[in-house]
Amino acid sequence: MKVLGIIPARYASTRFPGKPLIEIQGKSMIQRVYEQASKANSLTKVVVATDDERIAQAVSGFGGEFVMTGSAHQSGTDRCAEVTRRFPDFNIVINIQGDEPFINPKQIDLLVSCFEEENVQLATLIKKIHTEEELFNNNIPKVVINSKQEAIYFSRHTIPYIRNADKDKWLNVHQFYKHIGIYGYTTAALLEITKLQPSSLEMAESLEQLRWVENGYTIQTRITAIETIAIDTPEDLDKIAR
Asked: Across residues 9-19, what is the average pLDDT?
């Protein structure tokens, strides 16, 4: 199994332009993500996928490998698909978020382990929810899984609804999960899903993985106990300081 780790990175973020190049404790964010990903035992190669020369120069400057991509991609998944076509000898692709500077390599290895099972096409990570703040936060996607630990549905709303309990008791009667946004794909599945048209559920929830669910793809999950810290806005840098 040859596994390609791809870190999509674009400069023109609406909420935080130039985000991959911000300095965090002496290193750019993209360097920190790259170095953490490179520690994962399961990855054969790690590359940054970008459409911006400034990011490419930064990656080259710290000795990393990059691939220039088109600028019209709507998602990191689409950018990964373009890169994948240039590495036809890899059969598994891991899409690593470029805004998580302290991603734990063990999470990457855990995700890759999904593909040790036969017939897994797509995979992602989930984490148990322990607080009401997370449970009722619409910015944190929730995940419902079946007995095989496959994702049935993702929603920004709190699901499932607990009919016979007050909301302050929901965490006591059911185990809820939140989505950790790192994806794994077989090369074949990645190239297939990027040909799909946006679906009604995806557009309703603004969650791209619902396009795959709505088109009949199975998404295998693994439960991680490790928390991630994503930098979406300049204010999120305070998370790093804390």
From this structure: 77
